[in-house]
């Protein structure tokens, strides 16, 4: 991963131990915000779950708002990093989208709190909400365009297709990742890949 | 429309005048909740916008929670009713999905508050949130199955496809309806219809 874990401005950790502490705080924040929602969540709830002193929290973050903002960015980056290797390893453009969806639903099943946190950012921190989806859509647009350039996909793929693909993935993750995981991820991914390859026409 | 407008239990209006008052309260509630969010919205803000006395509010609703719940149901029904005629009039299954998306984005441009309200229901009233999407997905599943039975669509269309279509529509409505309406609705709908017809494969 080519990124620093997010902390408040000027508070980035400088040591490996510091990075581990920050990682622990963000993981604890995901549970705290995911279980309690933004308004009921507390900094002391986060530090208790992380097993760190209150001072350690303020070493990295200025406020509850700041750790929430960092968490949205962190979850967005985590999804990207979790999905990327399978997408890169896929043999063609449709297989890449199939792999992306499969990895995404798998990630969601292990991190069901991600929906509540990203969705609540629409109200708590609208800039983070918008940045998450705008960034994700740009990434998908570039991926589709690269696959089109290689001859895998139709030449006119665009931002509209990217938003369509992102919307599918988000709602399939909600239905088959968060709500109910009795349907196989591979089955869902195969169905969508076939739809992306050939459409729903007869 | 074959439905009664929603009020609290036992509080349904019995006269045409009552139905108009209730309609005015729900329209005012959409603006109040859409602009201020659930927590900052108030019953007095709703009655002021609707131009009705506080007593009229309590004729139809028990509480702020009750009018919010009714509003989510009402917006869900409004979308359905707005989209239905064009979907029914479409000559085939792909054209029906195209018409549904076109009508939906058009509706969103006129009612941008719908996203904030439905999205906030995930936190304020999770049962309403779930009911809205489960009901919408069931409707799309039936529509796709009927089109498949007529030979318009592939025979194996399923709930997975319905959730994919719903997710596309929701995110395209967010991008091209709420965020920015400089791209033509027909252009977006044509692009998605072509993708549904033939896929993204070369």
TrEMBL record, chains A, B:
Annotated keywords: DNA-binding, Transcription, Transcription regulation
Keyword Transcription regulation: yes
GO molecular function, one term: transcription cis-regulatory region binding
Pfam families associated with the record: TetR_N
Domain HTH tetR-type: 19-79
Coiled coil: none
InterPro entries on file: DNA-bd_HTH_TetR-type_CS, Homeodomain-like_sf, HTH-type_TetR-like_transc_reg, HTH_TetR, Tet_transcr_reg_TetR-rel_C_sf
SUPFAM superfamilies hit by this protein: Homeodomain-like, Tetracyclin repressor-like, C-terminal domain
Protein name, as recorded: TetR/AcrR family transcriptional regulator
Organism per entry: Sphingomonas oligophenolica
Lineage start: Bacteria, Pseudomonadati, Pseudomonadota, Alphaproteobacteria, Sphingomonadales
């Amino acid at each position: 991963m080519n990124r620093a874990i997010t902390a408040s401005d000027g508070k980035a950790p400088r040591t490996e131990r510091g990075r581990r502490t920050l990682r622990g705080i963000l993981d604890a924040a995901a549970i705290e915000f995911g279980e309690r929602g933004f308004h009921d969540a507390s900094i002391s709830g986060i530090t208790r779950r992380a097993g760190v002193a209150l001072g350690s929290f303020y070493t990295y973050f200025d406020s509850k708002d700041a750790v929430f903002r960092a968490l949205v960015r962190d979850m967005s980056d985590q999804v990207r990093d979790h999905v990327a290797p399978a997408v890169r390893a896929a043999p063609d453009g449709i297989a890449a989208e199939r792999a992306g969806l499969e990895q995404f639903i798998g990630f969601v099943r292990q991190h069901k709190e991600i929906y509540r946190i990203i969705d609540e950012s629409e109200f708590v921190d609208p800039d983070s909400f918008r940045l998450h989806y705008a960034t994700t859509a740009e990434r998908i647009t570039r991926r589709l365009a690269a696959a089109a350039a290689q001859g895998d996909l139709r030449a006119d793929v665009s931002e509209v297709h990217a938003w369509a693909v992102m919307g599918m993935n988000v709602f399939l993750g909600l239905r088959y990742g968060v709500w109910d995981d009795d349907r196989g991820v591979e089955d869902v991914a195969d169905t969508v890949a076939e739809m992306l390859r050939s459409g729903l026409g007869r």
